[in-house]
Amino acid sequence: IKRSIMSILGLKKKQPKTFKVKVITMDAEMEFSCEVLDQEVPKDCPITFHFLAKFFPEKVEEELVQEITQHLFFLQVKKQILDEEIFCSPEASVLLASYAVQAKYGDYDPNFHKPGFLAQDELLPKRVLMQYQMTADMWEEKITAWYAEHRGIARDEAEMEYLKIAQDLEMYGVSYFAITQNKRDTDLLLGVDAQGLHIYSPNSKLSPNKSFPWSGIRNISYSEKEFTIKPLDKKKDVFKFYSSQLRVNKLILQLCIGNHDLFMRRRKVDSIEVQQMKAQAKEEKARKKMERQILAREKQMREEAERAKEEMERRLFQLQDEARLANEALLRSEETADLLAEKAQIAEEEAKLLAHKAAEAEQERQRLEVTAMKTKEEKRLMEQKMREAEQLAVKLVEQSERRLKEADHLKQDLTEAKDAERRAKQKLLEITKTTYPAADLGYESASTRLDFKDSDMKRLSMEIERERLEYMEKSKHLQDQLKELKSEIESLKLEEQQQQAGLYGLHSEARGYVQEPVYIPHSNVCVMTSDDLLFLITAIKVVIPKINNFTDHCYLEQGLTL
Question: I want to staple 239 with a disulfide (CB 3.0 to 4.6 A). Which of 142, 229, 270, 367 is the partner?
Answer without folding.
Answer: 229
